[in-house]
Amino acid sequence: MPLLTRIRGPRDLDRLSPEQLDQLAAEIRTFLVDAVSKTGGHLGPNLGVVELTIALHRVFESPRDRVLWDTGHQSYVHKLLTGRQDFSRLKMKGGLSGYPARAESDHDVIENSHASTVLGWADGLAKANEVLGKDDHVVAVIGDGALTGGMAWEALNNIAAAKDRPLVIVVNDNERSYAPTIGGLANHLATLRTTDGYERFLAKGKDLLERTPVVGKPLYETLHGAKKGLKDFIAPQGMFEDLGLKYVGPIDGHDIEALESALQRAKRFGGPVIVHCLTEKGRGYQPALADEADRFHAVGKIHPDTGLPVSTSGLDWTSVFGEEMVALGKEREDIVAITAAMLQPVGLDKFAKAFPERVYDVGIAEQHAAVSAAGLATGGVHPVFAVYATFLNRAFDQVLMDVALHKCGVTFVLDRAGVTGTDGASHNGMWDMSILQVVPGLRIAAPRDADQVRAQLREAVAVEDAPTVVRFSKGAVGPAVQAVGRIGGMDVLREPSSAAVRPDVLLVSVGALAPMCLEIADLLDAQGISTTVVDPRWVKPVDEAMAPLAEKHRVVVTVEDNSRVGGVGSAISQALRDAGVDVPLRDFGIPPRFLDHASRGEVMTEIGLTAPDIARQVTGLVSKLDGRFEESRAAAEPVRD
Questions:
Q1: Which region holds residue 41: left if phi is over 0, alpha if psi is between -120 and 50, else beta?
Q2: Is residue 495 a contact partner of residue 535, using CB atoms and an 8 Å limit?
Q3: b/e map of 207-233 (b: 16 or more CB within 10 Å)?
Q4: CA torsion angle for 75, 76, 77, 79 (degrees, to 10)?
Q5: Which helix (H) or strand (E) holds 366?
Q6: Do you find a cis peptide bond into 250, omega within 30 degrees of 0?
Q7: Which residues are catalytic?
Q8: Phi and psi (nearest 5°) for 602?
Q9: Which of 173, 226, 300, 596 registers the highest number of CB atoms within 10 A of its CB?
Q10: What is the DSSP code (8-state) at residue 437?
């Protein structure tokens, strides 16, 4: 019987011999490649933390001891060791989440899959233990990439202030987040990796000097007293020790015995300790190791033997943006690009290859990226900061106070906007159009197809006196949706099929939902409800032509892939009120709740954001208006004897 099938909880690891632990690690890697190749998911990060996760669960007693995972995309091994071995529906509706999930297990603590937060969580939990007099341990696992985030260092500053508050920080150092980790901290960790001879140097020096007559022992003691200075010269872990953090490492992150020894020492210390582990992303799977881009950080369905995709999708939104950025870069020398450790996922890899001197990877530091962009714009260039929509939330203050207040020409390109589905609650890009509505002067473009991505990106980078935003969806981009006319700055996608004096519905389509809105119009037309479909293209500010156009219709309906609260529908409603246009408005969007992981289609069906659902509700709304009209007409007619 395979060892893995006998593991139902962490304590089952205690009875395994060193040889069996190595066998278990091999079985886990085989399981991960087989399972994730069928469903897609985060493969490379999990292959890299097999031994580390085993050691953590042997040394600490989860869930009493809190083991916290930053970002959480490396938690698959943790799931396996805590009794969750059915990966058949990983990231699918009803299956395991791709991140830690409290509903799945008491062993999971942090569901938020945004990076650099774990040390803040750990600080709070350790303080709670202190207040309540508990001797439980708190262990925070953070990658070298996440350690580049400013939040991590804010937390370290507080953690180090309590010298006797137990807290173990495990730095999982694989030199990568998605791509190779960059920046000063990365260089520092690289120095630590390559200077592991310090302890051997000191030990040999002790043997030699203690054999030297008279001056040997005093000289050794002097040398040992200068240990910290020597460490700063040979292996500058002094950076951590200057903060007041005990440093252990570097440790081979694939040597279970060495890991356990280091973790046991950290556990006994009684104060904040950093355990620095060197791991290899994608370890044990040659296709991942051969992938220089991101070591199979995240994969779709693949052939397990080759690592090649099972199927290829059509042109995707990200690629369209990436190609247009290269074209813009050739035309304008002042165009520069910014990424927060996600060069390839946001489509800037081709631009980086063509213009390496004009790309800035700031690490996992969205706040810094936004402020740096303001400086770049003020300095005379036009920065394009490409980031997942959900991650821009973290830089809101900087967008507001540094970019918009100073009227800086910065373009924010938001990938994965709207419902993303399988990555769960924290990855849906469903807040950007609500959050950004309050920023004075900022303009938001929501392209409906690939042609519009290209056109509106160009329009955005032409603006030099205000921030602009271009947001688009995840995955394949559909066929072009042609306009049949233009009203103001808005594209008319469909005109009423009947020659009604006052059409029934003005349907406002936002971004990638244009095909759905045209389907809604077809369904309404079948019910005898005349409909005009428009795409505002730029959804902030509301086009001046919107109010006059709305006044010519009986009801306005907005459809957006964003939260209904404070979104485009709300902005249009306010614009109509301000213009004195008294037309009923019904807004359709994402309800204000966190959405469980499932496919995009399943999520859209669950929240009622489908053509049949919307058409049915609009039909009911128009019917009510017809009823009111008939009632008012009947009331106005004189009573006959």
A1: left
A2: no
A3: eebeeeeeeeeeebeeeeeeeeebbee
A4: 90
A5: helix 366-378
A6: yes
A7: 281, 366, 394
A8: -65, -40
A9: 173
A10: G
**Both tokens of residue 142?**
């953070």
Dihedral, CA of residue 498, residue 503, residue 505 and residue 507, to nearest 10:
80
Strands in 585-590's sheet, in edge-to-edge order, are 485-487, 490-494, 531-535, 505-509, 555-563, 585-590
The first and second tokens of residue 122, run together, are 């750990």
- In sequence order, the β-bridge partners of residue 534 are 492, 508
Q: Residue 578 — φ and ψ, nearest 5°?
A: -60, -30
pTM of the predicted structure, to 2 decimals: 0.83
Which amino acid does the sequence have at 273?
A: V
For residues 188 and 239, the answer to whether their CB atoms sit within 8 Å is yes
Rounded mean pLDDT of the chain? Answer: 87
H or E element at residue 21: helix 18-39
SS3 415: strand
Higher pLDDT, 499 or 136: 136
To the nearest 10 degrees (0 to 180), the angle between helices 198-210 and 216-225 is: 160
Measured N-to-C along each axis, helices 18-39 and 256-269 cross at an angle, to the nearest 10 degrees, of 100
Q: Counting runs of H as helices and runs of E as strands, what totals does the chain give?
A: 25, 18
Residue 308 in tokens:
């090649």
- pLDDT per position as a tens digit, 247-290: 888 899 999 999 999 999 999 998 999 999 999 988 988 888 88
Strands (E), 109-245: 138-143, 167-173
Q: What are phi and psi of 161, to 5 degrees?
A: -70, -20
pLDDT digits (tens, 9 = 90+) for 27-42: 999 999 999 999 988 8
